Amino acid sequence: MAVKQGKWVKLNQKGAGPGARSSHSVTIVGEKAYAFGGEFKPRVPVDNSLYVFDLNELTWSVAEVTGDIPPPRVGVTMASIGQTIYVFGGRDATHAELNELYSFDTCTNKWTLLSTGDSGPAHRSYHSVATDDQHMYVFGGCGVDGRLNDLWAFNVVDNTWAKFPLPGDNLKGRGGPGLAAVGGKIWVVYGFAGMEVDDVHFFDPTTEKWTQVETTGEKPTPRSVFSSVAVGKYIFVCGGEVDPSDLGHLGAGRFTHEVYALDTETFVWNRVEDGSGSADHPGPRGWCAFSGGRRDGKDGLLVYGGNSPSNDRLDDIYFFTPCLD
Q1: Catalytic annotation, residues
Q2: Rounded average pLDDT over 76-85
Q3: Please, which residues bridge with residue 14 across strands?
Q4: How many angstroms separate the CA atoms of 162 and 33, rounded?
Q5: pLDDT exceeds cutoff 80 at 178
Q6: Dihedral pair phi/psi, residue 259, rounded to 5°
Q7: Of 13, 48, 143, 171, which one's alpha carbon is 20 to 30 angstroms from that of 205?
Q8: Exposure of 170 by Cβ count < 10 A (0-12 exposed, 13-18 middle, 19+ buried)?
Protein backbone atom coordinates (compact mmCIF):
# COMPACT_ATOMS: atom_id res chain seq x y z
CA MET A 1 0.00 0.00 0.00
CA ALA A 2 1.19 3.52 -0.79
CA VAL A 3 1.57 6.32 1.72
CA LYS A 4 -1.34 8.68 1.09
CA GLN A 5 -1.60 10.77 4.25
CA GLY A 6 0.51 12.57 6.81
CA LYS A 7 0.11 15.14 9.53
CA TRP A 8 1.93 18.39 10.35
CA VAL A 9 2.10 19.90 13.83
CA LYS A 10 3.39 23.40 14.50
CA LEU A 11 5.66 23.49 17.55
CA ASN A 12 5.14 26.64 19.61
CA GLN A 13 8.59 27.73 20.73
CA LYS A 14 9.51 29.13 24.14
CA GLY A 15 12.60 31.12 25.04
CA ALA A 16 15.17 32.93 22.91
CA GLY A 17 16.04 30.71 19.96
CA PRO A 18 18.11 31.24 16.82
CA GLY A 19 15.41 33.38 15.22
CA ALA A 20 14.62 33.67 11.54
CA ARG A 21 17.21 32.24 9.14
CA SER A 22 17.81 30.08 6.08
CA SER A 23 20.69 28.00 4.70
CA HIS A 24 21.18 26.62 8.22
CA SER A 25 21.14 23.08 9.55
CA VAL A 26 19.48 21.05 12.28
CA THR A 27 19.74 17.49 13.57
CA ILE A 28 17.95 15.51 16.25
CA VAL A 29 19.66 13.57 19.03
CA GLY A 30 17.21 11.82 21.32
CA GLU A 31 14.57 14.34 22.37
CA LYS A 32 16.55 17.45 21.43
CA ALA A 33 17.15 19.25 18.16
CA TYR A 34 20.45 21.08 17.59
CA ALA A 35 20.61 24.02 15.15
CA PHE A 36 23.71 25.66 13.67
CA GLY A 37 24.67 28.22 11.04
CA GLY A 38 22.56 30.06 8.51
CA GLU A 39 21.82 33.55 7.24
CA PHE A 40 19.26 36.31 7.69
CA LYS A 41 20.69 38.45 4.91
CA PRO A 42 21.75 36.50 1.80
CA ARG A 43 25.30 35.11 2.03
CA VAL A 44 25.98 36.70 5.45
CA PRO A 45 26.45 34.07 8.20
CA VAL A 46 24.54 34.97 11.37
CA ASP A 47 26.60 33.33 14.12
CA ASN A 48 28.26 30.11 15.27
CA SER A 49 26.23 29.40 18.40
CA LEU A 50 24.82 25.91 18.84
CA TYR A 51 21.13 26.17 19.74
CA VAL A 52 19.26 23.37 21.49
CA PHE A 53 15.50 22.84 21.18
CA ASP A 54 13.77 20.49 23.61
CA LEU A 55 11.14 18.63 21.59
CA ASN A 56 9.06 17.91 24.69
CA GLU A 57 9.25 21.21 26.56
CA LEU A 58 9.48 23.22 23.29
CA THR A 59 12.14 25.45 24.85
CA TRP A 60 15.32 26.88 23.32
CA SER A 61 18.71 27.19 25.00
CA VAL A 62 22.26 27.87 23.84
CA ALA A 63 24.81 25.14 24.50
CA GLU A 64 27.88 26.12 26.51
CA VAL A 65 30.54 24.54 24.35
CA THR A 66 34.30 23.95 24.40
CA GLY A 67 36.89 22.72 21.91
CA ASP A 68 37.33 23.50 18.20
CA ILE A 69 34.28 25.70 17.66
CA PRO A 70 33.41 26.06 13.94
CA PRO A 71 33.35 29.62 12.58
CA PRO A 72 30.01 31.00 11.27
CA ARG A 73 28.84 29.62 7.91
CA VAL A 74 25.89 29.14 5.55
CA GLY A 75 24.98 26.20 3.34
CA VAL A 76 26.27 23.84 6.02
CA THR A 77 25.08 20.32 6.89
CA MET A 78 24.61 18.50 10.19
CA ALA A 79 23.92 14.85 10.87
CA SER A 80 23.94 12.71 13.99
CA ILE A 81 24.92 9.13 14.74
CA GLY A 82 24.27 8.04 18.30
CA GLN A 83 25.11 10.89 20.67
CA THR A 84 27.52 12.59 18.26
CA ILE A 85 26.76 15.35 15.76
CA TYR A 86 28.80 15.84 12.57
CA VAL A 87 29.05 19.23 10.82
CA PHE A 88 30.57 19.49 7.36
CA GLY A 89 31.39 22.23 4.87
CA GLY A 90 29.50 25.39 4.13
CA ARG A 91 30.47 28.88 3.03
CA ASP A 92 32.03 31.58 5.23
CA ALA A 93 31.54 35.36 5.38
CA THR A 94 34.04 35.89 2.54
CA HIS A 95 31.96 33.50 0.35
CA ALA A 96 34.77 30.91 0.47
CA GLU A 97 33.71 27.26 0.28
CA LEU A 98 34.75 25.14 3.28
CA ASN A 99 35.53 21.44 3.83
CA GLU A 100 36.24 21.00 7.52
CA LEU A 101 34.49 18.16 9.32
CA TYR A 102 33.67 18.74 12.99
CA SER A 103 32.11 16.48 15.58
CA PHE A 104 30.13 17.61 18.60
CA ASP A 105 29.72 15.33 21.60
CA THR A 106 26.27 16.02 23.06
CA CYS A 107 27.31 14.40 26.36
CA THR A 108 30.38 16.59 26.96
CA ASN A 109 29.40 19.61 24.78
CA LYS A 110 32.84 19.52 23.13
CA TRP A 111 33.61 20.36 19.49
CA THR A 112 36.43 18.47 17.74
CA LEU A 113 37.94 19.20 14.32
CA LEU A 114 38.17 15.77 12.63
CA SER A 115 39.43 16.57 9.15
CA THR A 116 40.36 19.44 6.84
CA GLY A 117 42.55 20.11 3.82
CA ASP A 118 43.08 17.18 1.45
CA SER A 119 42.02 14.42 3.83
CA GLY A 120 38.37 14.39 2.72
CA PRO A 121 35.88 15.86 0.24
CA ALA A 122 36.69 19.07 -1.60
CA HIS A 123 35.39 22.42 -0.34
CA ARG A 124 31.65 22.88 -0.87
CA SER A 125 28.34 24.31 0.32
CA TYR A 126 24.67 23.47 -0.24
CA HIS A 127 25.56 19.79 -0.43
CA SER A 128 23.54 17.00 1.19
CA VAL A 129 24.21 14.39 3.86
CA ALA A 130 22.66 11.12 5.01
CA THR A 131 23.64 8.53 7.61
CA ASP A 132 23.46 4.87 8.47
CA ASP A 133 24.65 3.23 11.69
CA GLN A 134 28.35 3.75 10.92
CA HIS A 135 28.70 6.31 8.12
CA MET A 136 27.89 9.87 7.20
CA TYR A 137 27.49 10.26 3.44
CA VAL A 138 28.21 13.54 1.64
CA PHE A 139 27.02 14.23 -1.90
CA GLY A 140 27.31 17.09 -4.37
CA GLY A 141 26.93 20.75 -3.59
CA CYS A 142 28.53 23.93 -4.86
CA GLY A 143 32.31 23.59 -5.12
CA VAL A 144 35.10 26.04 -5.89
CA ASP A 145 34.92 25.25 -9.62
CA GLY A 146 31.22 24.51 -9.99
CA ARG A 147 28.55 22.04 -8.93
CA LEU A 148 29.68 18.62 -7.78
CA ASN A 149 28.39 15.05 -8.20
CA ASP A 150 30.80 13.11 -5.98
CA LEU A 151 29.80 10.81 -3.13
CA TRP A 152 31.88 10.29 0.02
CA ALA A 153 31.46 8.31 3.23
CA PHE A 154 32.94 9.15 6.63
CA ASN A 155 33.34 6.10 8.87
CA VAL A 156 32.59 7.28 12.42
CA VAL A 157 34.26 4.23 13.98
CA ASP A 158 37.74 4.66 12.50
CA ASN A 159 37.38 8.37 11.53
CA THR A 160 38.33 7.88 7.87
CA TRP A 161 36.94 9.18 4.58
CA ALA A 162 36.24 6.99 1.53
CA LYS A 163 35.45 8.29 -1.96
CA PHE A 164 33.11 6.28 -4.16
CA PRO A 165 33.22 6.03 -7.98
CA LEU A 166 31.79 9.01 -9.83
CA PRO A 167 28.34 8.46 -11.36
CA GLY A 168 29.00 9.70 -14.88
CA ASP A 169 27.24 12.33 -16.97
CA ASN A 170 23.69 11.12 -16.27
CA LEU A 171 23.91 12.45 -12.72
CA LYS A 172 24.98 16.04 -13.23
CA GLY A 173 26.64 18.07 -10.49
CA ARG A 174 24.02 19.78 -8.36
CA GLY A 175 23.22 21.76 -5.25
CA GLY A 176 20.32 21.27 -2.87
CA PRO A 177 19.50 17.62 -3.72
CA GLY A 178 17.83 15.08 -1.49
CA LEU A 179 20.07 12.34 -0.10
CA ALA A 180 18.91 9.25 1.75
CA ALA A 181 20.26 5.88 2.89
CA VAL A 182 17.50 3.33 2.25
CA GLY A 183 17.67 -0.41 1.73
CA GLY A 184 21.47 -0.50 1.82
CA LYS A 185 21.68 2.04 -1.03
CA ILE A 186 22.40 5.77 -1.17
CA TRP A 187 19.72 7.70 -3.05
CA VAL A 188 20.10 11.05 -4.81
CA VAL A 189 16.80 12.78 -5.52
CA TYR A 190 16.32 15.90 -7.67
CA GLY A 191 18.35 19.13 -7.04
CA PHE A 192 19.60 22.15 -9.00
CA ALA A 193 22.03 21.43 -11.86
CA GLY A 194 21.88 24.78 -13.65
CA MET A 195 18.13 24.17 -13.71
CA GLU A 196 15.74 22.36 -11.41
CA VAL A 197 15.90 18.63 -12.20
CA ASP A 198 13.70 15.61 -11.43
CA ASP A 199 15.97 12.60 -11.83
CA VAL A 200 16.50 9.87 -9.21
CA HIS A 201 19.65 7.76 -8.82
CA PHE A 202 21.04 5.32 -6.28
CA PHE A 203 24.51 4.03 -5.46
CA ASP A 204 25.03 0.46 -4.23
CA PRO A 205 28.12 0.35 -1.95
CA THR A 206 28.31 -3.45 -2.38
CA THR A 207 28.67 -3.40 -6.16
CA GLU A 208 30.03 0.18 -6.26
CA LYS A 209 27.69 0.95 -9.14
CA TRP A 210 25.32 3.84 -9.86
CA THR A 211 21.81 3.25 -11.25
CA GLN A 212 19.37 5.81 -12.63
CA VAL A 213 15.77 5.01 -11.71
CA GLU A 214 12.77 5.70 -13.93
CA THR A 215 9.99 6.69 -11.56
CA THR A 216 6.23 6.67 -12.16
CA GLY A 217 3.07 7.78 -10.37
CA GLU A 218 2.27 11.26 -9.06
CA LYS A 219 5.74 12.57 -9.80
CA PRO A 220 6.85 15.87 -8.21
CA THR A 221 7.87 18.67 -10.54
CA PRO A 222 11.62 19.43 -10.70
CA ARG A 223 12.87 21.15 -7.53
CA SER A 224 15.79 21.74 -5.17
CA VAL A 225 16.55 22.96 -1.62
CA PHE A 226 13.56 20.99 -0.31
CA SER A 227 13.23 19.18 3.01
CA SER A 228 13.39 15.38 2.91
CA VAL A 229 13.48 12.32 5.14
CA ALA A 230 13.63 8.55 4.78
CA VAL A 231 11.07 6.57 6.80
CA GLY A 232 11.04 2.85 6.18
CA LYS A 233 11.25 2.21 2.43
CA TYR A 234 9.93 5.68 1.58
CA ILE A 235 11.73 8.93 0.78
CA PHE A 236 9.57 11.97 1.56
CA VAL A 237 10.10 15.27 -0.24
CA CYS A 238 8.58 18.45 1.18
CA GLY A 239 8.34 21.85 -0.52
CA GLY A 240 11.40 23.38 -2.13
CA GLU A 241 12.20 25.75 -4.97
CA VAL A 242 10.59 24.91 -8.31
CA ASP A 243 11.67 28.04 -10.20
CA PRO A 244 14.90 29.86 -9.27
CA SER A 245 15.08 33.62 -8.80
CA ASP A 246 16.65 35.80 -11.50
CA LEU A 247 18.74 37.21 -8.64
CA GLY A 248 20.19 33.82 -7.80
CA HIS A 249 20.83 33.34 -4.10
CA LEU A 250 20.03 37.02 -3.42
CA GLY A 251 16.34 36.57 -4.25
CA ALA A 252 13.45 34.24 -3.60
CA GLY A 253 12.43 31.85 -6.32
CA ARG A 254 9.04 30.23 -6.60
CA PHE A 255 8.50 27.81 -3.73
CA THR A 256 6.04 24.97 -3.34
CA HIS A 257 4.45 23.29 -0.34
CA GLU A 258 3.47 19.74 -1.31
CA VAL A 259 4.69 16.49 0.23
CA TYR A 260 5.47 13.49 -1.99
CA ALA A 261 6.59 9.96 -1.09
CA LEU A 262 8.82 7.76 -3.25
CA ASP A 263 8.57 4.00 -2.73
CA THR A 264 12.17 2.84 -3.19
CA GLU A 265 11.03 -0.71 -4.01
CA THR A 266 8.48 0.07 -6.74
CA PHE A 267 9.89 3.48 -7.81
CA VAL A 268 6.36 4.93 -7.61
CA TRP A 269 5.68 8.48 -6.37
CA ASN A 270 2.52 9.43 -4.47
CA ARG A 271 1.25 12.83 -3.43
CA VAL A 272 0.65 12.85 0.32
CA GLU A 273 -2.45 14.54 1.72
CA ASP A 274 -0.98 16.61 4.56
CA GLY A 275 -3.59 19.20 5.56
CA SER A 276 -2.41 21.91 3.19
CA GLY A 277 -3.81 25.32 4.12
CA SER A 278 -4.23 24.54 7.81
CA ALA A 279 -2.59 26.55 10.61
CA ASP A 280 -0.30 23.59 11.30
CA HIS A 281 1.04 23.44 7.72
CA PRO A 282 4.39 25.11 6.92
CA GLY A 283 3.29 26.35 3.50
CA PRO A 284 5.62 27.10 0.57
CA ARG A 285 9.29 27.47 1.48
CA GLY A 286 12.82 26.30 0.71
CA TRP A 287 16.40 26.54 2.01
CA CYS A 288 15.13 25.16 5.34
CA ALA A 289 16.92 23.30 8.09
CA PHE A 290 15.43 19.82 8.40
CA SER A 291 16.07 16.50 10.08
CA GLY A 292 14.57 13.10 10.48
CA GLY A 293 13.73 12.11 14.04
CA ARG A 294 11.11 10.83 16.42
CA ARG A 295 8.39 12.71 18.28
CA ASP A 296 5.66 11.11 20.37
CA GLY A 297 7.14 7.74 19.45
CA LYS A 298 6.74 8.17 15.68
CA ASP A 299 9.34 8.74 12.96
CA GLY A 300 9.01 11.90 10.94
CA LEU A 301 10.51 15.13 9.64
CA LEU A 302 11.40 18.30 11.55
CA VAL A 303 11.41 21.49 9.45
CA TYR A 304 12.79 24.73 10.90
CA GLY A 305 12.77 28.16 9.25
CA GLY A 306 13.88 28.73 5.68
CA ASN A 307 13.10 31.28 3.00
CA SER A 308 9.60 32.39 2.02
CA PRO A 309 8.11 33.46 -1.33
CA SER A 310 8.50 37.10 -0.18
CA ASN A 311 12.25 36.52 0.44
CA ASP A 312 11.73 36.85 4.18
CA ARG A 313 13.52 34.40 6.48
CA LEU A 314 11.29 32.28 8.69
CA ASP A 315 11.65 31.16 12.31
CA ASP A 316 8.83 28.63 12.78
CA ILE A 317 9.15 24.89 13.45
CA TYR A 318 6.96 22.03 12.23
CA PHE A 319 7.00 18.26 12.58
CA PHE A 320 5.59 15.98 9.89
CA THR A 321 4.51 12.41 10.64
CA PRO A 322 3.56 10.12 7.76
CA CYS A 323 0.71 7.67 8.19
CA LEU A 324 2.34 4.35 7.30
CA ASP A 325 0.26 1.23 6.68
Answers
A1: 91, 147
A2: 98
A3: 59
A4: 28
A5: yes
A6: -115, 130
A7: 143
A8: exposed
What digits encode the pLDDT tens for the residues 256-278?
999 999 999 999 999 999 999 89
Taking a C-beta distance cutoff of 8 angstroms, is the pair 266, 1 a contact? no
C-alpha–C-alpha distance, residues 129 and 279, integer Å: 30
SS (H, E, C) the chain: CCCCEEEEEECCCECCCCCCCECCEEEEECCEEEEECCECCCCCECCCCCEEEECCCCEEEECCCEECCCCCCECCEEEEECCEEEEEEEECCCCCEEEEEEEEECCCCEEEEEECHHHCCCCEECCEEEECCCEEEEEEEEECCEEEEEEEEEECCCCEEEECCCCCCCCCCCECCEEEEECCEEEEEEEECCCEEEEEEEEECCCCEEEEECCEECCCCCCECCEEEEECCEEEEEEEEEECCCCHHHCCCEEEEEEEEEECCCCEEEEEECCCCCCCCCCCCECCEEEEEEECCEEEEEEEEEECCCCCEEEEEEEEEECCC
In the beta sheet, which residues pair with residue 317? Answer: 304
- The whole-number pLDDT of residue 3 equals 82
Q: Specify the pLDDT at position 167.
A: 97
170 close to 209: Cβ distance less than 8 angstroms: no
Reference 194, options 149, 147, 150; nearest CA is 147
User: What global pTM score does this model have?
Assistant: 0.96
Cα of 169 vs its chain's centroid, Å: 24
Distance CA 151, CA 149 (A): 7
Instruction: Give the per-residue pLDDT at 228.
Output: 98
